[in-house]
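Pasting as-is:
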Amino acid sequence: QVQLVESGGGLVQAGGSLRLSCAASGRTFSNYVMAWFRQAPGKEREFVTAIRRSSIYMRYYTDYADSVKGRFTISRDNSKDTVYLQMNSLKPEDTAVYYCAADQASGVSRMAKEYDYWGQGTQVTVSE
């Protein structure tokens, strides 16, 4: 089992920044694909970004939804079993509950059903 705990959400004005953290425990963190999803009220959960180990030594592969590309950055610190989501230039449409997810597969998926473990979520609210 893998336990995921998100933190760092809050209220921010449009144009501002937030950094979310997701602390993992229970298994070998570095072997997992880690992702962030979000869910706004009345909408389905959607993929935001994911990161996995690359075949190139000490490099990582990342994938971003078009809506956040250039504004959000995912990173991970395997020594701390933590993945981060740096969110810049936030917009009101970024308002949602943000979830951290982990997948044992080797490839990155944008589909929520492919992920094995989920955190409880952290609320991000962006005001006008």
